[in-house]
Amino acid sequence: MEDKKQKQLEDKVTDYKQFGFILLSLSIFLFIGLVIPTQDVTQWQGLFIVGIFMMLGCSFVCHRLAMKAQKQLHE
């Protein structure tokens, strides 16, 4: 039973880290798209900035959850 719980915690750590890195890379990609100058300024840029910060926040939460699961794994 203990081995099954340890395997679940290892899987959680892996999943949370991967999901966090995906969100981080996507937010960086979108931010680079905003930095590249265009001819006109649209109203969508504000929504993209909000979305970028939301993805960064979710990435931070996933990283914290991964660290919490990893701490439980090592106890």
Task: Please bin the fraction of helical residues.
Answer: over 70%
Q: What is the chain-wise order of helices and strands?
A: HH
Question: How many domains?
Answer: 1
What would you call the structural class? Answer: mainly alpha
Q: First CA to last CA: what distance?
A: 16 Å
- Percentage of residues in strands: under 5%
The DSSP helix count reads 2
Number of strands: 0
Give the averaged pLDDT, no decimals: 89
Instruction: Indicate the radius of gyration in whole angstroms.
Output: 17 Å
Shape: rod-shaped
Q: Which segments are poorly predicted (pLDDT under 50) over 5 or more consecutive residues?
A: none
Report the biggest beta sheet as strand number plus sense, adding barrel if it closes.
none
Pfam family, one: YrhC
Keywords: Membrane, Transmembrane, Transmembrane helix
InterPro entries: YrhC-like
Transmembrane segments: 21-38, 44-66
Structure, described:
- This protein has one domain (2-74).
- It is an all-alpha fold and 75 residues long.
- The two termini are 16 Å apart.
- It contains two helices and no strands.
- The protein is 87% helix and 0% strand.
- This is YrhC family protein.
- Keywords: Membrane, Transmembrane, Transmembrane helix.
- The chain crosses the membrane at residues 21-38, 44-66.
Question: What attributes does this structure have?
Answer:
75 residues, mainly alpha, rod-shaped
Q: Could you give the topology of this structure?
A:
Blueprint: H1 2-35, H2 44-74
Helix pairs in contact: 1-2
